[in-house]
Amino acid sequence: MIRLSASNLPENIRHYHYDRNAMTTGIVHFGIGNFHRAHQAIYVDDLLNDGATQWGITGVSLRSSSMKDALAPQDYLYTLVTLSDVTECRIMGPLKNIIVAPDQPQAVIDIIAAPTTKLVSSTITEKGYGLASGRVDVTHPALKSEFACLQAPTTIYGFLARAIIQRFKTSADSKLTIMCCDNISAGGDLLKVGVEHLLRKHNSDALLWSQDHIGFISSMVDRVSPATDETLRNLIKIKTGRLDASPVSAEPFTQWIIEDNFAGERPAFDKVGAVFVDDIEPFEQMKLRYLNAGHTIASTLGYLCGDTYVHESLRRPEILNFTRQALYENVLPHAAVPAGYVGAAYIEDVIKRFQNSHLPYANLQVGTDSSQKIQQRWFPTIDRALRSKASLPYFEFCLGAWAVFIQRSIINNELSDPKKAAFKEIINTNDIAPYLKIANADKFIFYNQTVFIKAVNRYAQKIRENGIKQTIIDFEC
Ligand code: CS2
After folding, report:
1. pLDDT tens-digit profile of 212-253?
2. Does 292 contact ligand 1 (Cβ within 6 A)?
């Protein structure tokens, strides 16, 4: 079967209609994963189709060459398929190149420093930012090493700092915006903190210059996009008649809210469905504390039930009811939604999207990096609720279930988490506190709330003794 490439696009499949040879790099994106390729890339593809060919994307992989290895032989084209009652394929063309940072570090610095690059964006997952309780951890070994010497950057902060210094020296009149597109609160501010931490040490003139020439912004990104597997590759073969080494699937829904504080030229993302806002924080909070919180609740319980996918777990009435009530009773009273939104309606929309049986989103995929994710998704709501003396039975249960998930997924050799080694050392401990401390919970108020922690321990022990299903049933009685 023919490999997908620019010289043999499949017939009768929707594809880009701009001249890719005329496309120039206006955007450098860190983290060319499935989420970026299903979300931001579609807005860019639409811009390019509208004739704005200055917004081509050059990807940067900070660690692995796997995406480059997969896409380079197919001219960096890939198939995006939306999966719901209707299956729709689209050949995507916005990627010009992927640079593997460990192999070509100077190429990364050069492309960001080029004055034609107007925007740098990132989807490097929560762990990519080296955070501790939601703040940049300057004691993180990689950042410490770059603080000592910036010659061999390995983090996004190091590469951005090197590129800003080079841009300051070679294109002093140019402006650049750096945008976070990850599920973290105030991601743009965090990128600024990390970059300025390095510039302050290595080039104070570039730091001063950056105040007027570099903008850091956040965005709320939303589209459920599962990992790619052989089932998807085979589907694409059937649908398009082409071999695609790395197709990507997603739900039909997509949403992108962008903080409107660009330093220089701003892509007209609002012309292709995104929304620019002055205050991004309410949108970030809604996404993290409702959608992502609910995703982690359903997937944690689902994994412990032995289910593979989120939509399968939500077919269980006890998990569907628990997840819905957890959001209504332990999130809605303590987490605001932006003007114009109704929390209850958002909850129902989110649950309906998670129930999409055409979209195989694995419980374990949500469970990946959970030690980092729950710091953004659960902890702030728990603290806010406890400050108002509210009771939180659902979060007591969820944290207990999360600790059992950590233990069980390690035993099953299925845990993927930057703190896996630390969890393995305590796996025979049933007390919740050390697990929470590894997830940086000790920086939150609830960590020292004895009554709350005792309740969490009680639920964890009940789940270990009676199993998750019975414990949910007993809980809901
Ligand atoms: C998911 C998110 O894997 C996960 O952690 O909760 O990737 C979720 O699918 C997206 O944020 C939806 O926009």
Report:
1. 999 999 999 999 999 999 999 999 999 999 999 999 999 999
2. yes
Residue ID of nearest Cα to ligand 1 atom 9: 224
Q: What is the mean pLDDT of residues 422-426?
A: 98
How much is the pLDDT for 476?
76
Ligand 1 mutation target, pool 220, 366, 368, 377, most atoms within 8 A of CB: 366
pLDDT at 477: 60
Query: Cα of 349 to ligand 1 centre, how many Å?
Result: 15
For 286, half-sphere exposure in the C-beta direction (CA atoms, 13 angstrom radius) is 26
C-alpha distance from residue 64 to each of 68, 154, 270, 372, 474 (Å): 8, 12, 32, 21, 46
Angle, vertex CA 247, rays to CA 245 and CA 248, nearest 5 = 150
- Asked whether the predicted pLDDT for residue 133 surpasses 80, the reply is no
Give the rounded percent of residues in the chain with a pLDDT score beyond 90.
98
Taking residue 388's Cβ as centre, other Cβ atoms within 10 Å add up to: 8
Above 70 in pLDDT, residue 407? yes
Nearest atom (ligand 1) to Cα of 366: 3
